[in-house]
Amino acid sequence: MICGQAASPRSGALTGWGNAWLAGLVSTDEAITEILEGSGGPGAPHTIDGEGLALGLGRLRTVGARRLRLVLPVPGDVSGLPGPAETNQEALAAGEAVVVLGPVPPLLLVPSVTAHGPAVEGGLESVHWRSATGHRVPPPPSPLSAAEHELNDAIRTATAALLHLDRAKVDPDALAALRERHADEPTLLLPPGYPPSAHALLARAGRIASLIDLAARDDGAAVTAEEIERRSTTLRGLSAAVRRACESAYDAFDPSQSLAR
Fold first, then answer.
1. Regarding beta strands 107-116 and 124-133, do their DSSP bridges make them parallel or antiparallel, or are they unpaired?
2. Selection from 256, 254, 247 nearest residue 97 by Cα
3. 189-211: per-residue pLDDT in tens?
4. Does pTM top 0.90 for this prediction?
């Protein structure tokens, strides 16, 4: 997972709305509704350590939770996880997790997902979060400005590489979408407490993630093994920048920046 569901993976929904709830910017009912909507819908159970979301969130506050942080680990980069190794492996397998800051040492919430009914029939998913005690406070993601700069650099590199490698079947509209900032991008992807720059970065990251998904469905016009590897490397680099942009956007919570909606 890069930053799915239009830049709101289930861990992002818990992180963003959990932060707003901890800061008193939204009610418990509103937070739970939004977390469920961002985690596969309200029709299936969602739990934290076996308890419903309301009790689970309350227990996080009881143990001293002050802030939640999204982590999207991938093989070779688990720097945002607090350890120990076996817990990191669980988060790596899930592709997402939430670090709970405040308790010492911090906690890590890792989701497991159970599908109910065929996806083609709109089947629901239940999400069960397991908490584990970490070993250390991991370093924070890059500031928004640095994450945006990295994403812009990755977009320029990827655009040039795909133009060269996919010259026979490049989609001009897709490349234009890759290059451009959209004036009509959604501006409220996050709850109150996030600055406009975080909304904009998350919207752009989600759009680029969708384009990466499309590009990864085949090898484009790449023919040789070398060209295929270069194309794959290009997409991995862009995916990494998108992932870090998502982490930075969700980490930019600042209650004083509460937005009127």
1. antiparallel
2. 247
3. 799 999 999 999 999 898 888 77
4. no
